[in-house]
Amino acid sequence: MDLGNLKLFKMAMTKMDWAAQRQKVLSQNVANADTPGYQPSDLKKLDFKSVLREEAAPVKVSRTNPKHMTGTIPEQEAFRATGVRKTFEASPDGNKVVIEEQMQKVGSTRGEYNTAIALMKSHMKMLKTATGSSGA
């Protein structure tokens, strides 16, 4: 059985991928806390409503006539870093990284990652119970 085909696992994996990528962005912010003029960035919040829509009815563009033009929009990364709009303080050198804010975001992101893992574990346990297997 390929667990990647189950919607719940796909959604949990998407959440875990988002959290891992956000941790990377936040760690770059913390690493550049003393860089003059550095502007912190963050990932856009993951919207599960759009993820569900994509999973429910994936629509692909197709050319129904050879005279139609092919698509020109390039593929984008799953999650893009965006600039932070509000910062509460800035240093005299123009750096807008606030370590306390970044560490709070790191903590909440870790919590979201752990929640996705717990969801996957409980779902695995349920599947094992349903199939009668007691594998480790």
What does this 3D model show about the protein?
This protein is 49% helix and 4% strand. With 136 residues, the chain is mostly helical. It has one domain. The mean pLDDT is 79.
Strand and helix map with partners:
Elements: H1 7-31, E1 41-43, H2 48-56, E2 81-83, H3 99-131
Antiparallel strand pairs: 1-2
Short description:
49% of the residues lie in helices and 4% in strands.
- Helix coverage percent of residues? 40-55%
The secondary-structure element order is: HEHEH
Widest beta sheet: strand line-up: 1-2
Coarse morphology: flat
Instruction: Work out the strand percent.
Output: under 5%
Rg of Cα set: 20 Å
Features:
single chain; 136 residues; mainly alpha; two-stranded antiparallel ribbon; 3 helices; 49% helix
